[in-house]
Amino acid sequence: MTKGLVIFWIGALAVALGLFAALFPYAAVPAQTLASSRVARPMERMGAIDLGGGYGTVSVVDLVGYYVEHPPVARAGAGGDSGGHHFRGC
Fold first, then answer.
1. N or C, fewer C-beta in 10 Å, the chain?
2. What average pLDDT values come out for the chain (90 residues) when binned by 10 residues?
3. Are 49 and 60 in contact (CB under 8 A)?
4. With the CA atoms of 2, 3, 5 and 10 taken in that order, what torsion angle do they form, in degrees rounded to the nearest 10?
């Protein structure tokens, strides 16, 4: 390698690390938000969720109740292999 190439890569790494250090505070989650995310909140205290698309706002209690009454149906081959799947090679 030539001396100019080494200087270029060291300079490029220095600029990249400098940008990372300068922009990190804007990408980091505030300490208060991080602390509140680690504490579980009862679903009764959660607000309504806007589902959009004509569904409107629904409370979390109603969403959980609907999920319990209408659990998702497992489709064949969706989660795990049913044993009947064969790969076709050369």
1. C
2. 92 98 93 91 88 87 91 68 61
3. yes
4. 150
